[in-house]
Protein: F-box associated domain-containing protein
Organism: Caenorhabditis remanei
Amino acid sequence: MDKQLSYDSLKSVLKHMSLEKREAINRQIPELRTINYRLPYVLETLFIGSFFEINGKYWTFKPTWVQSSENPLNYNADPKKCELTITQYNPEKEARQSMNKSDEEVLEQLFDEYIRDGTVVRGLLGCHGIPEFLKRRRENEVDLKVKATNLQLKIHETEDYEHFIRFIDLDVLENVEFLNTGNAQALLDKPEIKNCKNLIVDAMSLDIPSVNELLRLRNQHLQIEGYRFTRNEVHQFVQDWIITGREIGTRFSWPQRRSEDVVNMLDYLKTHFETLEADSNLESYFSDKTIYGNGTALKMRENRELVMFCGKSNIPSEWTPFTFEMEVVASATGTVPTPDV
């Protein structure tokens, strides 16, 4: 006779199963639905907004149009109904369904079904707007934290951000991608964004803050995309990093379309700062990176140097294949004097 798993052993097994396998268990083994429901899922991706996405499966909504009782030629959206489309790309499937619920009600049902306290998102957690039902859930009504290392934000209002961030386990969060939205500075000033380990700011369509405001960010790696820095602004960035004594390992990346633009900027900086003979040492600093042309290094306090060079983007991009890179490293020559900038 086969020995049955204990309750704790069963929980451990279910916890480590994929979402797809656990959903299959719900359908095929009704006796396990209760315990399966109580355990948080481990997801690859999760996106929340006017749509819902989990592991490449999308739920999107369209209004249900009904004929006006006052004018048969007019059609109005029924607020209590919606047209639901479920799309999956691997393998490719699509299903449509008329729902006797509003899109908000369906979104809330999906949220409650898949998101529980302790849910883990191993890939990217994206917030592209806040559904109304999340705004109604007050702090003392919800004891729920999602564990995600990578967060993508596309939010317009500070209030929406506060509604969402309370569901995130900030002890786990490391990387934030801040997409085109308004009210940028108020959101970038939030401690969990300002001080997260890695921050990407997509400035293409932002109500972009000034350079002085960007300098308040204290991320270990800050990447600014879509911002057209002037030479004077880059000079200001470099000078601030030297004066404020950024920590070893602090890094700044600015993607560019042409390597020549980065090299020209480096040549400009060499004429405005006291540089070290670091060109030949760059490969030892960054053996894992592809470096184009000659870089340079500037003196900093406490046996540190600010190294700058033209690098190749880690993510293939037709528009910005190169990057202006700036990183604080330990001095290769020992004690260096404090620069006069």
Observations:
- The mean pLDDT is 86.
- The first strand starts at residue 42 and ends at 43.
- Residues 243-341 form one domain.
- The longest helix spans residues 231-243.
